[in-house]
Amino acid sequence: MAVKCKVVHCKPCTAKKVYEESVTVWANQYGFDFSPILSRAKAEFLARPLHNYELDPEDCLSQSAVLLDIDMSTFSRKNLEFISEKFEFVITKGGTFHGLCAWFSVDILVEYLQQIYQSM
Q: Is the pLDDT of residue 33 over 80?
């Protein structure tokens, strides 16, 4: 097995810059007041995840929390449907909470990397 451990992290964040570019920009667009559609623009912005968004560290509202820590040497696929985790954050910075930023880290076994290197 190449991967020993997978860890899913998440932290609350604000996306102020992209929010302003997507939502508040409608208040004055080329001199026209489109503010009646602000609620629709806001709903659409909040309904979808931001993929491939590079989060500015200034946008983080707290430290990250470990959502899931899986030891792949003992984990089986049938365990997937029974995963239930609790986590909490202490918000340490002011700002509008727009959502959670999530990412994962993976520990790759050195033996696996050595096999790949030797086969080259």
A: yes
Query: How much is the pLDDT for 47?
Result: 87
Distance CA 16, CA 53 (A): 13
Other Cβ atoms less than 10 A from the Cβ of 71: the count is 10
Look at residue 1 and tell me whether its pLDDT is greater than 60: no
Can you say whether the dihedral through the CA atoms of 19, 23, 29, 32 is positive or negative?
Answer: negative
pTM for the whole structure: 0.66
CB 11 within 8 A of CB 103: no
Residue-level pLDDT at 95: 92
| CA pair distance 77, 67, nearest whole angstrom | 18
SS (H, E, C) the chain: CCEEEEEEEEEEECCHHHHHHHCHHHHCECCECCHHHHHHHHHHHHHCCCCCCCCCHHHECCCCEEEEEEECCCCCHHHHHHCCCCCCCCCCCCCCCCEEEEEEEEEECHHHHHHHHHCC
